[in-house]
Write a structure and sequence with these properties.
The protein is α/β, with parallel strands linked by helices. It has six helices and 26 strands. The chain folds into two domains: about 230 residues, Spore Coat Polysaccharide Biosynthesis Protein SpsA, Chain A (Alpha-Beta Complex); about 90 residues, UDP N-Acetylglucosamine Acyltransferase, domain 1, CATH 2.160.10. The structure holds guanosine-5'-triphosphate.
Length: about 350
């Protein structure tokens, strides 16, 4: 079975990191998120994947899949949303296929999901996960047989109360669902294709799995995904040890992930943060609840709280930044910018 992975979004909520690294290539515990997705596929004997790229497509050049897996690429000429890129490769889809959002980390049992898809006779089966508060998501209520009743996008607080099942961004689909979609246009699974299938009375089912699931697409959830891997809550996913780390043990507080070639001086202090690779942190610097891009230099005494710092930034000595998003390549000179 072929798996299509959506990887062409702008990733605006993770700016400025996504200006230089598309979201599926951002590391989770020192390994590109895309590799975690491919590992899930491998575990379920799915050995053919196609990456549907758009924004930042060139960044995927040179990415190598795990051994035994074939990885193809299809690049859209302009952003086509979530369903549009799938329509673009329709000619290559002859049989039941999978679609993955490129920003979901989960331990979903794909084999069980595919088995349910086949036994129910569905044209589309959506992986659904229960959440305690569905306000930020779309609710997907099911009937007693597991069939999707409707889609409630951005539910009101009354509808969201008590939580419910949300679309977890992984689908098993029959090629026939693409037939009535327009080609070459932006089109969404969540807002257009699935509601249309329901209107037509087609069998759309939910596959409910209450195992680990997270969408890594916001800074809070990107950090949380790290803590979940580090603290053993993500089945089948472990921390990849970083190479060339030089860090003083006293400088590293709880919940810190650092990539290859990071260096943290004694007397610095880092808590609840993720450093990508090649980050240099000088003495007396403090970093809290922040994500620091590749090859960033944080000079003596700089303090960063709730920041997202793009690649190759230099934060000069003594700066105090709170809630800042710093564009790649910027140098903030020494001395007191707040
Ligand atoms: P935000 O801008 O922060 O909302 O992120 P995003 O652009 O990634 O959007 P979203 O999180 O809704 O996307 C879900 C998945 O679909 C991600 O894996 C995206 O890479 C992918 N995606 C979103 N829009 C497009 C698109 O226009 N083309 C392609 N190929 N993939 C897309």
């Amino acid at each position: 079975m072929k798996a299509l992975i959506l990887a062409g979004g702008e990733g605006t909520r993770l700016l400025p990191l996504t200006l230089t690294t598309p979201k599926p290539l951002l590391p989770i515990a020192n390994k590109p998120h895309l590799s975690h997705i491919l590992d899930v596929l491998s575990r379920h004997m799915i050995d053919e994947a196609v990456l549907l790229t758009g924004f930042g497509a060139e960044n995927f050049d040179g990415f190598s899949p795990p051994s035994g897996m074939s990885l193809g690429f299809a690049r859209e000429p302009e952003p086509l949303g979530t369903a549009g890129p799938v329509k673009m490769v329709e000619d290559s889809l002859e049989d039941t296929f999978l679609v993955f959002n490129g920003d979901v980390l989960s331990g979903v049992d794909l084999s069980a999901m595919i088995a349910q898809h086949r036994s129910s006779g569905a044209v589309a089966t959506l992986y659904l996960t229960p959440v305690p508060d569905a306000t930020a998501f779309g609710l997907v209520p099911l009937d007693a047989s597991g069939r999707v009743e409707r889609f409630v996008e951005k539910p009101s607080p009354e509808e969201a109360v008590g939580g419910g099942l949300i679309n977890a961004g992984t689908y098993v689909l029959e090629p026939s669902v693409l037939k009535r979609m327009p080609a070459g246009r932006r089109w969404s699974f969540e807002r257009e294709l699935f509601p249309t299938l329901l209107d037509e009375g087609q069998p759309v089912f939910g596959y409910t799995d209450d195992g680990y699931w997270i969408d890594i697409g916001t800074p809070e959830r990107y950090l949380q995904a790290h803590w979940d891997v580090m603290e053993g809550r993500v089945p089948g996913v472990a921390v990849t040890p970083a190479r060339g780390l030089r860090m003083s043990a006293q400088a590293i507080g709880p919940r810190v992930s650092a990539g290859n070639q990071c260096s943290v001086a004694a007397g610095a202090r880092i808590t609840s943060s993720v450093l990508l690779s090649g980050v240099l942190v000088a003495q007396e610097a403090r970093i809290e609840r922040s994500i620091i891009g590749n090859d960033v230099e944080i000079e003596v005494g700089a303090v960063l709280t709730d920041c997202i710092v793009g690649d190759r930034v230099r934060v000069g000595a003594g700066n105090q930044l709170r809630g800042a998003r710093v564009a790649p390549g910027l140098t903030i000179p020494a001395g007191g910018v707040t």
